[in-house]
Known about the structure:
- The protein has helices spanning 25-33, 45-54, 61-67, 72-82, 106-124, 143-152, 168-176, 225-234, 278-283, 297-305, 315-318, 327-337, 401-406, 411-414, 420-427, 454-457, 465-472, and strands at 13-15, 37-41, 130-136, 157-161, 181-185, 187-188, 196-200, 217-222, 241-245, 288-291, 310-313, 342-347, 357-362, 383-386, 392-395.
- The chain has 475 residues and is an alpha/beta fold.
Amino acid sequence: MTTATPDISMPEIIQGGMGVGVSNWRLANAVAKSGNLGVVSGTALDTVLVRRLQDGDPGGHMRRGIAHFPIPHVGDQVLSRYFLPDGRGKDQPYKMLPMYKQVVSVARQQVTMLANFVEVYLAKEGHDGIVGVNLLTKVQLPNLASLCGAMLAGVDYVLMGAGIPREIPGVLDAFSEHRATSIRFDVEGLPATEAEYLTFDPALHGVEPAMPMNRPRFIAIIAATSLAMTLARKANGRVDGFVVEGPTAGGHNAPPRGEPHLNDRGEPIYGERDVVDLSRIAELGLPFWVAGGAGSPDKLIEARALGAAGIQVGTLFAYCEESGIADALKQEVLYHAARGEVDVVTDPRASPTGYPFKVVRWTGDNAGGPRRVRKCDLGYLRTAYRDPNGRIGYRCPAEPVDAYVKKGGTVADAEGRECLCNGLTANIAQAQLRGNGVEEPPLLTSGDDLRSIQSFIGSRTRYCAVDVVNYLLGG
């Protein structure tokens, strides 16, 4: 029988699960302590964990979390391989994890389990509040191991968008019963009569029936009324609510419906067809939260008046003291934002996924500098494809163009693509060191609210997560 979801409160504010390591355990912990839903980003957490260890684990927080992982040998192996007590040398690049494929070693999956456990454990430490994990449906390969690790840590909510997460409720049910499970694996070029799957058996990783794995609530992040209706009626398990995200939200946006058109800045134009009908969402009888340009007290009042449980807010939390954005980068952006010198551009080409992606620009940034040398060594956004010999390969439009074309891609599809994997890790001071001492450049994303953040920060150059909560609640 599925372990029942604990009776937990319904939050008014959901803190967005942003970027790679931006929504870290410190931020989620602070928001959860305030009585709202603190969310950690599960994207690439395995890489984030091993890089924190290679940087010496300041404060010992990763080791403290690892010590509580219920399968001790996993933490011992990761520490033995990646922990550097004095941190990396000045010219020492990070040691890399193997890139994910359809089938990887038990040890590789266990790093992902451990990373998600540690992040959720630390986010839940020292309070009785609620904590969620945000994962991207499109980043399929690590998701089963990520969910297993988060559930071992007692995660309260799972939030997923960037695709159609119809199979995830069934995964949560299976893991809560300590059962093996699988999800359909998206492979380009696969005949309609065939299917590939990703499978995960907790028992193969040392998860025992006595280890609690309560079923968390599942919140789908959607940008279309039709998707909400599909998930509510056809998901393979219980959907507990929705985050309704508009195109002003940071990170990836859903593409506009219909034939694409661009404005004079080269951004996709959204119209009436892209507006979600909240009254129809309310008719589904499930709680929902409004996201995208919702970071103000007035927007919270407006959302509640339309039947929403509350709002999801990203940008204001992204620049608070507890977030994972590198401090120097955070302060530079806030300095220029206070002077009206920032812009947020919805770039239809930057992301290898093909989804529009918001990119932050500010006076004096290095966007016009030399472009990075293309290199794909993290691989979270690679797409699986069936090659002419029937084998499954992996490609990314942001990898070296010759390699991408050799794998069946096109030069046109590779044009303008950026490596989000390396750019987003650089945002949190985990830039990989390349030849001649050059570091990977950051690629910062935010919602459109960043343009008007000066109305919140005033003359301040720093603020905390609780300041954001008090502001949104009218305190």
